Amino acid sequence: MSDGRAFQDGYPEDVAHCYGCGRLNEAGIQLKSYWDGDETVARYTPRPEHTAIPGYVYGGLVASLIDCHGTGSAAAAGSRVAGVDEASEPLLRYVTASLQVDYLAPTPMGVELEVRGVIEQVKGRKVVVEETVSAGDAVVARGRVVAVQMPQTMTPAEGPVETRLR
Ligand SMILES: CCCCCCCCCC(=O)SCCNC(=O)CCNC(=O)[C@H](O)C(C)(C)COP(=O)(O)OP(=O)(O)OC[C@H]1O[C@@H](n2cnc3c(N)ncnc32)[C@H](O)[C@@H]1OP(=O)(O)O
């Protein structure tokens, strides 16, 4: 895994509040994604409140990991193509247009999950990312995210962060 700045640490401050990946959302997951060669990777250990049935992870959490690793991977890949310095400059902003998830096996609690992304396409404002979620040697979910660069019209809400997070 790459050292250095996570993709999400490169999000501009006014869009760093996402529940899944915003570094400024103290109640959130704060997922961190990195390059690993041509692929992308994130690791996360679910918390007790992410339980579906005792011992197993809620599918919505698995979907969130795929969602936010996908948009993070899109931000990194799209920014790279656009010539943004990923180590120091703010990354381009991408939002989820489409999120597909296939649950292949129950996801156990108490295990660090690994999310891997492969950049399938960078085309104009769109990036497509294919992903897997693994628990140890077992692939527990597959996913696909279509991310689109945030339109200029989708501006962050005004007011203090506490208000915007409500
Ligand atoms: C870096 C900071 C990032 C911080 C945010 C992290 C976000 C974390 C993940 C999220 O939770 S984001 C919140 C959930 N997502 C939204 O609220 C997005 C709501 N949807 C929209 O605002 C618009 O539909 C969207 C911006 C996604 C697309 O509208 P556009 O008018 O900009 O897209 P356009 O029609 O120009 O299409 C651009 C390309 O995307 C494709 N596309 C658009 N919507 C699609 C869709 N739903 N499925 C598949 N492809 C889609 C479209 O076909 C086209 O591909 P091609 O260039 O190949 O023709």
Provide a compact summary of the structure.
With 166 residues, this protein is α+β, with helices and mostly antiparallel strands.
Q: What letter string, H or E per element, gives the SSE order?
A: EEHEEEEH
Question: Could you say how many structural domains there are in total?
Answer: 1
The best one-word shape is globular
CATH topology: Thiol Ester Dehydrase, Chain A
State the helix count.
2
Describe this structure in words.
With 166 residues, this protein is α+β, with helices and mostly antiparallel strands. The protein has a single domain, classed as Hotdog Thioesterase (Thiol Ester Dehydrase, Chain A). The protein is 17% helix and 32% strand. Strands 1-2-4-5-6-3 form a 6-stranded antiparallel beta sheet, with helices on one face. Strand 1 and strand 2 form a beta hairpin. The termini are far apart. The structure holds decanoyl-CoA.
